[in-house]
Amino acid sequence: MIDTKILSGIDSLYYFCESNTNYDDLYLEILDQLEEVKGKFLKKDIAFENKDLYILINETSLNFIGIAEGFHWFKDMNDTFKIGFKDKYKNKGLNDIRVQLLAFGIYTIGIKSIIEFINTSLLKDYVTDFFPITRVDLNSFVQSDLSFITKDMFVTRKRKYSTISEIGNANTTQTIYIGKEPFKLRIYNKKEELKKSNKKDLMYEYFLNNDFDIEQPIFNVEFELHRTHLKQFNINTIDDLFLNAKNLFQQSMEDIRLIDISNITFKDIENNTKNRADTLPIWDFIKENYKLDSFLQNQLPLERIKRKISVYSENKFEYEYVALIRKAYINNLTLDTEYLNELYFKAKDSLKKTTTNKEIKKDYIEVDVIDKSGIKENFRLLKDGNLIKSLKTETVANLSDYELLVYLDKTKERQHLSQRDKDIYYVARKEASKRGLF
Asked: Residue of 36, 87, 238, 332 with fewest CB within 10 Å of its CB?
C-alpha cells in the first residue's frame, strides 16, 4: 500500500462573481460587440456559427458558445475557462457572472492563477471581492487497479447518498456513481475515459510530470459537491474552499465508505447492515493522503497567463485556417488557390531560413557609451570612424507571434523612459491584443 501513488487535486470548479455598478455597461457592450460581428456576416450573406463570434473584454478575446439558463456563454481562446453573463434585471436571484474552470487551465496554468486572472484582470472593473462557489469536484488520481470494486462494497451514512449505479462487465468495473446532487461520488477508470477524450495528451503529460506510470492502471476517486452541500460546512466562497478542501474530502470519504465485505455475511448485505464491516485499507490510504499543497502551488505569473498558451494539433490548425479564410472574405480580401499555394510554399521556404542577428552582415561595431551621470547608451562605430546613435525600429505587424511577445517584454521594461518608448510599447501591445496573444 505504501507504494501506491496518490495525486490529489480539484478537477473542476464553478463559481459566481458578484457584479458592481459598472456591470450593466459591460453587459450592453457585450451585446453590442456580438451584434457588430454578426453584422459583418449578414452584410455579405455569409452563414456563421456561434464559434465565429467573439468579443473583447479588457484586451482578452472570448469566443461565443451560446445562450443557456439566461446567460450568454463564452470561452477563452486557450480553453482554460468558460464564463457566462446575464441581464442584471432578469432572474435577480442569481449573480450576473458565472465561471467554470476547464481542465486545460487547471492542469497546466494552475487553478489559483486562472482565478486570479479572471477576477483581477479580465473582470477587474466589473466585480466586487465576493466570489461565491457553486460547485467543486475534489478528486484523487490513484495509481492502482480499482476495477475489483462493486456497488455492494459501499456503506453510506445518509439515506439520500444511497443511490448507486455501476458500469462495467462481468469481470471489471469501469465506473461507479454513488449519491446524487448535491453530493455525489464517482469512481472510474481514468485511462479508459481518456481514450475518447481530447484531454488525453494533456492528462498523460500531467501524470508523467507527477511520476505516474501511464502503462499502469489509473483510477479517479472524485466527489462532486454543490452549493447546498458546501454550505453545511460553512464553505461559501473560493477562499473558504481552499482552506477547508482537505477536511471536506476526508469527511466525504467517511460519509461514503468502501468496506471489506469478506468478513460479513450475505444477510448483512441483503439487510443493508454492512456498516459493521471494516473499511478497506486502500480507502483509508486515499483519505489520509489527500493533500492540496503542491496542487495549489502550481501557478504561472499573471502576465504569462495573458499570452496564448495552446497544445497545437491538426484539428486546431484546421479550425484556425478556416477561420482565417472566412475572415479574409468578410473583409473583402481577394483570395484564390494560386495565391494560397504561393503562401504555402513561402511558409515552407521560411522554415529553411533563420532570422537571427548573427546572419546580418554588420558594417559597424556595437559600443556602449556611459556619460558622467552613469547613463549608458548604445552607439555604432562605423568603418570611417564616425560614432552614431543606433535607431531601433520594428514593424510589429511583420513579427511572428513569438518575436512579438519577446519584443513586447522588452518595450514594456522601457515604456517609462520617454514618451516615444511609451508609444512603441502601446503599438506592440495593440498588435498582440489584435492577434489574441493575451
From this structure: 332
Query: Concatenated DSSP letters for 385-401?
Result: S-EEE------GGGS-H
**No. of H helices and E strands in the chain?**
15, 16
Grade residue 376 by pLDDT with cuts at 50, 70 and 90.
low
Share of the chain above pLDDT 90, in %: 46
Query: Please, are residues 140 and 8 in contact by the beta-carbon 8 Å criterion?
Result: yes
- Across 325-344, average pLDDT: 82
C-alpha to C-alpha distance for 78 and 311, rounded to whole angstroms:
9
- Look at residue 309 in the predicted model and tell me its pLDDT: 43
CA distance 8 to 114: 18
Handedness of CA 281, 242, 201, 299 (dihedral sign): negative
Residue for grid cell 505569473: 301
In order of 117, 150, 152, 171, the CA distances from 168 in angstroms are 41, 10, 14, 8
The amino acid at 66: G
Biggest alpha carbon–alpha carbon distance for the chain: 103
Q: 220 with 249: CB under 8 angstroms?
A: no
Q: Quote the pTM value.
A: 0.69
| pLDDT tens string 405-419 | 777 777 887 788 777
| Residue of 231, 137, 229, 227 lying closest to 187 (CA atoms) | 137
Give the helix/strand (H/E) hosting 268: helix 266-270
Q: Is the pLDDT of residue 169 over 70?
A: no
Element spanning 226, H or E: strand 219-226
Domain boundaries, the chain: 6-302, 312-353
Q: 258, exposed or middle or buried, with CB in 10 Å at 0-12, 13-18, 19+?
A: buried
CA dist 437 → 36, 139, 151, 196, 428 (Å): 22, 32, 48, 29, 11
Q: Which DSSP state fits 127?
A: B
